[in-house]
Design a protein that fits this description.
With 512 residues, the chain is an alpha+beta fold. It has helices at residues 42-55, 65-68, 193-206, 210-223, 231-242, 309-319, 327-333, 339-369, 371-381, 383-387, 394-403, 409-412, 415-426, 440-447, 456-473, 507-510, and strands at residues 2-4, 16-21, 29-32, 123-126, 129-132, 140-147, 152-161, 172-173, 182-184, 189-192, 252-253, 257-258. Bound molecules: zinc ion (ZN) (3 copies). It comes from Candolleomyces eurysporus.
C-alpha cells in the first residue's frame, strides 16, 4: 500500500492511498482511493515507479490493459432460497385481480417462542430441483438468525440432510416459513417478509438504493444494540425473495388485454453507490470515431403548422374569448350608470371590440392558408357565434390550440400518422374515421361533425404541410447500424444480476 502525494496540494487530505495486490508491479491489480477502479491515474503511476525501485524492475512496463477491463458495478451472488412457496406482494402493490394464494401472514416481530419446525413443504433448493422434507426421517436442529424490521433474534431451526445434494456440500432441507411471515434464505439466515417488503416499498416510492436502505436499517438495529447484515447479502436475499413474489402474469390492460403492444413506463430507476462509480461509465450520447456522421443535419427552425407567428398568437387569444357579460346590455337599459360602472362598462366594451377585431384578423390570416380552416374557424369563433354566446366545444378549442402551437407540426402529425392521414384522404368517408386515431386532436373534432366533406380540404392542407416539413427534415438516409431501435432480447429481470449493462425495470414499477 502506498500513500501518494497529491498534485495540486501538499496537504495530507490531498494524498491518495494506492494499493496493489499481486507479486509483480506489472501484474496483479492496482487501486487508487481517489480514482475509480479501472483507472490508470498519476497516483498509480507514481506508486508503480516507487514499487519498481524498491523490489527491482521486472522488465515490464505498467500495462495499461490491466486498467481497461470494466469493473463489476456490484457484487451479486445469485442463490436460490430454501423458502419456495409463493409470497403475496406488499399490500399497496397488490391488484384486485391477484389470486389469493394464501392468507397474508401477520408481521413477524417478536422473539421466536419455539423452534422453527419442518413441515410438509419444507425443501432444499438442490441445483437439480427441489427435494422435499421426508417426515419420519431423522432431523437435527441448528441455530439461526432471524432478521426482523427492528432487530435480529437468535432462533433454532429444524433441518434434515438433503439426500440429493452431495454430502460434501452439507446441504439441508429446511422449513418454508412463509405462513409465519418469514423468508428462509439458507437455514441460517431468515428474514421477515415485513423487512423485505419495506425495502420493496422504499424502492418503488423513492428509488432507494440497497446500500441506503441497509444503512437505515443498520442504524435502527444499532439503537437496540444489534447488528444488521451487509449490502451484498441483503441484495442477494432480496432478489431471491422477489423471485418468490406472486406477481407474474399481470402485464395486462383492462382495455387491450394481456401484454399490450405499447406500454408507457412512468419512470426509470437507476442508482449506483458512489463506490461503484467507474471512470469507464460514459453517457450513451458520447460519440466515438465509429459514430454515425450526419453532416447534412442542421437546425430547422420553422416547423410550425402556421409560419406566421403573429397569427399563431392571435388564434391562441381568440379561442380564449372574454366573457360577454349580461351587464353590458342591462346597465344601459337602467338609465345613466355610475362613474365606476361606466369605467367598467368601457373596459368591457373595449375588450369586446378588440376581440371582434382579432376574429377578423385571424379569419383573414387563415384564408390565406386554407379556406376550409378559415371557414371552420368562423363557425366556431366568429362574431355570430360570439354574439349568441355559443362557446366552441373543448375539442375544437384544443384543435385550434394545436394549429397555433409553437412546436413542430410533426408533434401533431408524425410520420406514421401522416401515412394514416394520407390513407384516410384516399377515401375520406366517416366510417373510416378511426384511421385518424393517431392524430387524436383531429379525430375528436371530426367525430363531432355531422358532415366532414367541407373539412376534407383542411385535412389535405394538414397533410401537405406535414409532408413538407418531414421532407425538409429528411436530409440523411443513412441506415442505423443496430443499436437504437433493435429489439432487446427478452430479459428476465429476476434472474439478471444488477451489474448487467441493460437497465432493469422491476415489475413493481410496471404494475398497471
Ligand atoms: Zn489516483
Ligand atoms: Zn438438496
Ligand atoms: Zn390498454
Amino acid at each position: 500500500m502506498f500513500s501518494v502525494k497529491g498534485f495540486s496540494t501538499s496537504e495530507l487530505k490531498g494524498r491518495a492511498i494506492v494499493s496493489h495486490t499481486g507479486l509483480q508491479p506489472s501484474g496483479g491489480t492496482w487501486k487508487c482511493s481517489k480514482h475509480a477502479d479501472g483507472t490508470l491515474c498519476l497516483h498509480v503511476r507514481d506508486a508503480f515507479e516507487l514499487f519498481q525501485s524498491v523490489i527491482g524492475e521486472d522488465g515490464q512496463e505498467l500495462d495499461t490493459a490491466m486498467f481497461i477491463s470494466i469493473p463489476s458495478l456490484a457484487s451479486f451472488t445469485r442463490q436460490d432460497s430454501v423458502s419456495h412457496s409463493p409470497i403475496l406482494p406488499p399490500i399497496p402493490l397488490a391488484l384486485k385481480n391477484d389470486p389469493v394464494l394464501c392468507p397474508r401472514p401477520q408481521p413477524f416481530r417478536n422473539p421466536p417462542v419455539s423452534i422453527l419446525t419442518l413441515e410438509r413443504g419444507g425443501s432444499c433448493p438442490c441445483p437439480s430441483g427441489q427435494t422435499f422434507y421426508t417426515p419420519g426421517s431423522p432431523t437435527i436442529t441448528r441455530s439461526c438468525r432471524i432478521f426482523t424490521l427492528f432487530t435480529v433474534y437468535d432462533g433454532v431451526v429444524e433441518i434434515q440432510a438433503c439426500p440429493n445434494c452431495p454430502s460434501t456440500r452439507r446441504r439441508f432441507i429446511g422449513p418454508d416459513l412463509a405462513k409465519q411471515g418469514l423468508f428462509n434464505f439458507n437455514n441460517s439466515i431468515i428474514v421477515s417478509h415485513e423487512l423485505l417488503d419495506e425495502y420493496t416499498m422504499a424502492f418503488v416510492t423513492s428509488e432507494t438504493p440497497f446500500n441506503a436502505f441497509v444503512a437505515t436499517v443498520a442504524h435502527r438495529y444499532t439503537v437496540s444494540g444489534t447488528e444488521f447484515m451487509g449490502d451484498d447479502l441483503f441484495r442477494s436475499i432480496w432478489f431471491a425473495y422477489a423471485l418468490r413474489l406472486a406477481m407474474d402474469n399481470d402485464m395486462r390492460c383492462t382495455r387491450c388485454g394481456d401484454c399490450p403492444d405499447t406500454v408507457i413506463w412512468d419512470g426509470i430507476t437507476l442508482a449506483f453507490g458512489r463506490k461503484h462509480l467507474s471512470a469507464t461509465l460514459v453517457p450513451p450520447t458520447k460519440t466515438s470515431e465509429f459514430s454515425l456522421q450526419r453532416l447534412n443535419m442542421k437546425n430547422h427552425p420553422r416547423q410550425q403548422l402556421l409560419l406566421d407567428s403573429a397569427l399563431r398568437k392571435l388564434i391562441r387569444q381568440v379561442v380564449n374569448a372574454p366573457k360577454l357579460e349580461d351587464s353590458l346590455v342591462k346597465d344601459i337599459d337602467d338609465g345613466p350608470p355610475s362613474n365606476a360602472a361606466q369605467i367598467e362598462l368601457d373596459r368591457q366594451s373595449r375588450q369586446v371590440v378588440d376581440h371582434l377585431a382579432r376574429i377578423d384578423a385571424v379569419y383573414a390570416g387563415l384564408r390565406k392558408e386554407c379556406e376550409a380552416l378559415a371557414h371552420f374557424f368562423l363557425e366556431a369563433y366568429g362574431a355570430i357565434a360570439y354574439s349568441k354566446r355559443k362557446s366552441a366545444p373543448s375539442a375544437t378549442t384544443r384543435f385550434f390550440l394545436q394549429i397555433a402551437a409553437e412546436e413542430s407540426v410533426l408533434q401533431m402529425i408524425n410520420g406514421a400518422a401522416l401515412a394514416d392521414l394520407n390513407d384516410f384522404l384516399a377515401a375520406p368517408h366517416p366510417k373510416h374515421l378511426t384511421k385518424l386515431l393517431s392524430i387524436p386532436g383531429l379525430y375528436r373534432v371530426l367525430l363531432a361533425q355531422s358532415r366532414i366533406d367541407s373539412l376534407v380540404p383542411l385535412l389535405q392542407w394538414l397533410a401537405n404541410r406535414a409532408t413538407n416539413v418531414l421532407q425538409e427534415l429528411s436530409v440523411e438516409h443513412l441506415p442505423l447500424s443496430g443499436g437504437a431501435g433493435a429489439a432487446v432480447p427478452e430479459s428476465d429481470w429476476k434472474v439478471s444480476s444488477p451489474d448487467t449493462t441493460a437497465s432493469c425495470l422491476s415489475p413493481f414499477e410496471i404494475r398497471p
